[in-house]
């Protein structure tokens, strides 16, 4: 029961993209790689976590120093690369540091985008795949469930994932603040820029009316509109399209402004100055800056949105400080639990020794009990068991409490010598190693 947590991996901080592309475990849906890791000498439990920015092996072993190089060599063999060529990009964490890492990853405190929600689902998927090939055991099971609980606490007790930290999310957030409920609003997408398309996808999830796409190439507009189940219009219908839109996202490759101040003035008169939200993600800008001064018009460009992203990121970092406190609490609880595992053989041996004494004494005087009725014999059994339980209560409580502390091994050793438990303890530990359920 002395297995410790070992984490070996690389991520967006430690390795450039050309290295991350080489070291991936995309899904490991058949569990082939997980089983290969489990076959490494010294690995008792294991799982793989693989995302676009991270590849990690989480293992349980009682000899991390010896097992880590074996895992690194195996990773190299699996990917057909020289282990020495990737070793400098890997982080190797063990014990409490590894537990903290797993908890921080699950709570999205170690992500490229702080607080992003996808990572927890990816961690759960990795754990489920490992469980499906019977690569998990009591320690990894406990570790992952505490990691999920920690992530839940961070989500519920801090605001680390609340403020939007992508341009696309910020655009939707601002639109909701300005226009309120977006369900009945019309969205117009001008151009086919990647960031504008992403913002449109987020917006479409909040609206019920079909999206309208305007592009210089009508065929491209039709193709993109089809992805959104919307409709398309030619560029010469731009002003009419603006008049009917509540939210406009524009990102074209035009070298000059497509939407002028005079044009928007005409549009607003047609709209009777009903508010319109304009998102200009193009560089150079698609919308003249003078549009911002027109009543009822809310114009944001890429710099405006990025400024909000940075502000929100600052809020998340502040909340992350609170989240780190939660992680520290949960890491300590988990480590305390692992330390109590060391006291389990002694406690069980102590109970078995007392029970053996009780049963032996009853057997010795069995002749004297022969005249007792079955009810009276049951009463003797109950009384003697109760006496044994009361005698055992204080020592066991002490071992559970102090066996997990720095002097725990001393207390366990004294208990074993006081009650002559060494043989029983070794026997229990041997059985424990053989059991597939531990």
Explain this structure to me?
The protein is an alpha/beta fold. It has three domains: 4-157, Glutamyl-tRNA reductase, N-terminal domain (Beta Polymerase, domain 2, 2-Layer Sandwich), CATH 3.30.460; 167-309, NAD(P)-binding Rossmann-like Domain (Rossmann fold); 341-434, no CATH class. The protein has 16 helices and ten strands. The strands form two sheets. A six-stranded parallel sheet has the order 7-6-5-8-9-10. A four-stranded antiparallel sheet has the order 2-3-1-4, with helices on both faces. α5 packs across α7, α8 (167-179) packs across α9 and α13 packs across α14 (374-402). The longest helix has 63 residues, at 302-364.
- CATH second-level architecture of the largest domain: 2-Layer Sandwich
Q: Unreliable stretches, pLDDT < 50, 5 or more residues? A: 428-438
**Element string (H = helix, E = strand):** EHHEEHHEHHHHEHEHEHEHEEHHHH
The strand line-up of the biggest sheet is 7-6-5-8-9-10
Provide a count of the helices. 16
Distance between the termini: 8 Å
* Total E-strand runs: 10
Structural class: alpha/beta
């Amino acid at each position: 029961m002395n297995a410790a947590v070992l984490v070996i991996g690389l991520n967006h901080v430690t390795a450039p993209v050309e290295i991350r592309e080489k070291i991936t475990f995309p899904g490991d849906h058949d569990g082939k790689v997980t089983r290969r890791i489990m076959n490494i000498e010294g690995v008792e439990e294991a799982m793989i976590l693989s995302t676009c920015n991270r590849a990690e092996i989480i293992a349980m072993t009682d000899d991390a120093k010896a097992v880590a190089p074996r895992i690194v060599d195996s990773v190299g063999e699996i990917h057909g690369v020289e282990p020495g060529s990737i070793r400098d990009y890997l982080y190797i964490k063990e014990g409490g540091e590894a537990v903290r890492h797993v908890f921080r990853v699950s709570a999205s405190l170690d992500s490229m985008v702080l607080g992003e929600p996808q990572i927890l689902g990816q961690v759960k998927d990795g754990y489920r795949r490992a469980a499906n090939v019977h690569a998990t055991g009591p320690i990894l099971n406990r570790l992952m469930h505490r990691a999920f609980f920690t992530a839940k606490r961070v989500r519920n007790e801090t605001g680390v994932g609340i403020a939007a930290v992508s341009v696309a999310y910020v655009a939707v957030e601002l639109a909701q603040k300005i226009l309120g409920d977006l369900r009945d609003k019309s969205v117009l997408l001008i151009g086919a820029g990647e960031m504008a398309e992403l913002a449109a996808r987020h917006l479409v999830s909040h609206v019920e009316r079909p999206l309208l796409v305007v592009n210089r190439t009508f065929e491209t507009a039709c193709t993109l509109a089809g992805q959104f189940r919307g409709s398309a219009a030619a560029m010469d219908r731009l002003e009419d399209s603006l008049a009917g839109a509540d939210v406009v996202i524009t990102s074209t490759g035009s070298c000059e402004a497509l939407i002028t101040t005079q044009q928007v003035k005409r549009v607003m008169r047609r709209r009777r100055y009903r508010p319109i939200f304009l998102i200009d993600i193009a560089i150079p800008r698609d919308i003249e800056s003078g549009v911002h001064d027109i009543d009822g018009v809310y114009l944001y460009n890429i710099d405006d949105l990025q400024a909000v992203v940075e502000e929100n990121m600052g809020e998340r970092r502040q909340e992350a400080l609170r989240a780190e406190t939660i992680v520290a609490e949960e890491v300590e609880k988990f480590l305390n639990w692992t330390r109590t595992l060391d006291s389990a053989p002694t406690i069980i041996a102590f109970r078995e020794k007392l029970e053996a004494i009780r049963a032996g004494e009853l057997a010795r005087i069995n002749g004297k009990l022969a005249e007792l009725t079955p009810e009276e014999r049951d009463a003797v059994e109950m009384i003697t068991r109760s006496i044994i339980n009361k005698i055992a209560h204080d020592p066991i409580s002490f071992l559970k409490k102090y066996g997990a502390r720095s002097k725990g091994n001393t207390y366990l050793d004294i208990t074993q010598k006081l009650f002559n438990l060494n043989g029983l303890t070794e026997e229990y530990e041997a059985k424990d190693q053989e059991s597939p359920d531990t």
